[in-house]
Amino acid sequence: MTTNKKYLKWYHKIGYGSGDIAGNVVYALLTSFMMFYLTDSIGMSMGVVGTLIALSKVFDGVTDFFFGRLIDKTHTKMGKARPWMLWPYIGCSVCLIACFAIPESWGQTAQYAFFFISYTLLNAVFFTANNIAYASLTALITKNTNERVQLGSIRFIFAFGASMLIQYITIDAVNFFGGGAEGWRIVAIIYAIIGLAVNTISVFSVKELHEADEEMDKERSEEHKLTFFQSFKLLIKNKYYLLICSTYIMTQLYASVIGMGIYYMKYILDNEGLFSDFALAINIPMVSLLLILPFIIKKMGGMYKLNVIGYLIATLGRIGVMVAGYMGNIPLMLIFTAIATLGIAPLQGDMNALIASCSDYTALTTGHRLDGMMYSCSSLGIKIGGALGTAICGWLLDAAGYMENAPIQTPSTINMLQFLYLWAPAILCGIIIILLSFLKVEKANKELLNANGDGYILR
To answer: What is the spatial distance between Cα 289 and Cα 276, in angstroms, rounded to a whole number?
Structure first.
């Protein structure tokens, strides 16, 4: 495998990274505001919505691997992944609007059905195809490890920049357009159009590698001999895939409980507008560190040590947020939120490079490249972690007695909000440290390359 040759110009990296603006138009809006819109604008039950979200995961669990395999089997003039990144985003735009356009005149049963269908189509079909394809491009447009890290950093700079902007302006934008359900619908339409435009630009800003050397031809021939179940078996035999998939799920669960912050701000801090300030405390440190992440990784000689140390810092930071929260000290909460984010940032920036290394591990140990299915862990993690996190939060708050738009919530609801926003993030950071301590895929790949003379072990 070639690791020193440079494949990308600066404009390729920027173009690729901008695609995460489109992804976060969907992701940030769903995780930060969808539950709030459904409960406090439409009047849906938090427990019922949580159950519907959980049910939709039954479909998601199948489609991630299905689309991953389709990408691996695809060969067009545009490449393997780019067609699946381009066309499904049209469906993403339509379904995103639908999720924030629940007909107010319909009965509750019809409203729940409308939401379930639009949400499931968005996540299980269109976002799955687009997101797996986008993530797969990291391994398909360059073989240079440093460039892969750079791509990961750049895409997450765009991701968190978009997320920061969405979290900061959305509430004000909804109010500007009249508030209530109508305001949410207009904002969703605007975001969907922006996402569609940026996604299209990103697709055509890069090209996939088309190498005709003997090794690539042999790889491709071997790849097409595999059935879906044979590919799936190879995938789950890769222990690093299972570790990174679990890590991805935990990071998205973390994002989900942080998303409950809007309820925490509204009912405990008595100012939902503070959600924007906490969004800045998360996203500004994130973007700042991602700008220098490739340099830091190069200095530290890899991603493993940096990720573990980072999450140790994140755990301490979230403990600080917890203490400051019980003290009622908002400035101190913001400071510790920023510290925790600095610890989380390295993994966010190098996650795609880690997945690419996991894909290389499969190629080195089996002779088969499964980039599309390998990158299914990104979509799987986002959807299982994000959606189930939202669902679980909904169930817990519903069980605690949450009442939509109540001027004063019950003591059990207040305690649950404190657990979700103060305790749960610190616990999840601790779990992620344990997972990362076993994720030594870089070391494993180097050992395999040294043992086999930089070649694949072909069966």
So the answer is: 20
Residue type, 192: A
Confirm if 248 and 351 have CB atoms less than 8 A apart. Answer: yes
H/E segment holding residue 301 = none
**If you compute the radius of gyration of the chain from its CA atoms, what whole number of angstroms results?**
22
pLDDT interval class at 250 (50, 70, 90): very high
Q: How far is CA 419 from the centre of its chain?
A: 23
> Nearest CA to 456 among 395, 392, 391, 368?
368
Q: pTM for the whole thing?
A: 0.72
C-beta of residue 181 within 8 angstroms of C-beta of residue 41: yes
CATH, domain 15-451, list 1.20.1250.20, 3.40.309.10, 3.20.20.10, 1.10.10.10: 1.20.1250.20
Read off the pLDDT of residues 204-233 as tens digits, 9 standing for 90 and up: 999 988 653 344 444 554 555 678 788 888
How many other CB atoms are there within 10 angstroms of residue 198's CB atom? 21
Distance CA 168, CA 173 (A): 9
The β-bridge partners of 76 are 79
According to the model, what pLDDT value does residue 379 have? 65
